[in-house]
Amino acid sequence: MDPRKREPACRVAPARPGLGRDRNVRHLERSSRVSQRGPAATIGDAHFQEDLMTGTIVEQARSFYDAVPYEVPEPDSSLFELLDTAARLYPSRIALDYFGQTLSYAQVHDQVLRAARVLLDAGVRPGDTVAIALPNCPQAFVAFYACMRIGAIAAQHNPLAPPAEVAGQLERHGGRVAIVWEKCAEAYPLTTLDTVLTVDISRAMPASQRVLLNLPVARARQTRAQLRGAVPAGTVSWDRATASSAPIDSAFPLPSVDDLAVILHTSGTNGVPKSAPLTHRNIGVNVNQCMFWVWKLHEGAETFFSLLPYFHAFGLTFFLCAAVRKAATQVLLPKFDADMALDAHRRRPITFFVGVPPMFERILARATQTNTDITSIRYSVAGAMPLSTALASTWEEATGGMIVEGYGLSETAPVLAGAPLSCRRRHGVLGLPFPSTQLRLVSLDDETVDVEDGQPGEILVKGPQVFSGYLNAPEETARVFTSDGWFKTGDIGVNRDGFISMADRKKELILSGGFNVYPSQVEDAIRSLPGVADVAVVGVPVSDATEEVTAAIIMERGVAPLTLEEVRAWAEKSIAHYALPRQLVFIAELPRNQMGKILRRKVAKLVREALGR
Question: What is the pTM of this model?
Fold first, then answer.
């Protein structure tokens, strides 16, 4: 039996010879865990209870830390060192598993050095921005670290984003070179960019599967069409260029820890498209925060399910960076599919799973239907949307392991809070403030006034993982920072003993499949459809703690109601696929206040009644 496979849920497992914990843990655990905690205290101690009630949120939270230091070390080098170190210490360990085709850390490191040379030959220099629009695949990993090696800024793009959205993102960051999936190359025109390098994501698959894709049968043609696409004239094959390139000169300088590393695209909390730049320090320290939080993972001995997209903040930090920090094996898929995920798990058992609640629900359902053993998954982290207590309990019962939640934003690199990975965890909460992170809840009317425990307030944070401002958007930056430097998340939370729970959303975002959907953007897309007089978009909760985008539509007089397919086809011209409505409700009038503003809560009530929810 694998000695790492199972341990009692509430017992702190000691480090095991040959399966060493994080290098930073070994030199920090004594000073952090002993000297910072002071005299021993217990939950039953009256003085402890009084301190818990009257202390700051962070002070309350620390009483629940499980072998986690109050402060984590900040990196002093670039993100490239994560890969450089893993390849040096674990050269033969498998880094990536893609449909069964594997790359060791030494092999992927070599590919990165060659890819870095390709970028230099394309004219990219330190500080330049490179657009990356790829699903999860080995080439996406290599492209990211090639940027980190030469000090370029990796601007992560959703490969399924509509061209209009991509155009705005390219304009904001000004990159002149793009590495893109063949199927989205049309959205990255050479009229805007100097060089477009296209990626065949089937090329990294096992040779036997590539042969099957070329068979003259309907199923092979269908699968091939999902993976590949025609590329515009003038583009260059990234795969061929990296395969034939020489490695970059080892003397080429590395970026500094305070250089920009990544640009993530977000609409923040107000629905206005923006770009959030993050430094090597921002992401590097969040990697340390995450890895100290899940300290029970063992370096060089874990297998991660890398199912969240790399272009998502959560996926970028946990998979592109933290998995490498742990010298873990990543099992990659270009899109989430429960059956494919379980096929991969049966081939290479997963030990650590970071995902969004719908992923856990679907894998759990298919594992039950197919009688697949998932008890190797000892630890799991859910984020991007609420995790229901029912799903958390069912998941832990099925795996015998633990699942906790994490909370954050693109602007915070992204994680800033989480439930402890211990028997004192709570489900249905955002969690405790992370190490090295300050957190306050302030009045919605006066951001200088902290609210009492148990009362709702806007979540404000400070920490080394917090970005310094939006790209070329000083007004938006000023809007989200207080005069004394606290970042305003736009989320409303409630504190209970240091655990933060989500009370409401300051803006009426819809959480759909782990992505923020902004009702105003969906409404603009639908409102332009001929025959639509007005529309309001709301989220309708479903069983897995996500929400379905639902449009309440008023048709013009005499016009027949539209079908859902017609509305989705029209809207997809201007908004992302995940933001498309999944349900329609036709109404005669939209409820509004005296100022003419649509009352979304009343709309949501009308919609739920119409749908029988």
Answer: 0.81
